[in-house]
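Task card 7
Instruction: Convert sequence to structure tokens.
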Amino acid sequence: MKLRKSILLGATALTLGTGISTIRVSANHNFFYWEHPHWVTVTKKSTIYKIKNTNPLYKSYVVNKYQVYPGHHLLIHHAASFDWQVESGHFNSNGYYTYAVGRSSYSWFRSGIH
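Output:
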């Protein structure tokens, strides 16, 4: 009986240990990671929209569009009203204008400067 329990316990521990070690934690799916701006490298051609902020926010409108190409570096973060908000260089959001990327997934950039 003890031998059977030992084997069962060993097999369970081995199975759980292997499963846990193969799980990769991705920063792409962590809300708190994207709460603050992070540098990314663009991997697909994307459009950045310059949006005039108005009150109420639903009346905001697009003023201009910019294209960014693979290899461009941006400082981005998630925002409540826009999927990705840009905070770097020429695309510096402020109280009057917001620069937002026209993509909603994680497939258009790679984390870090490469």
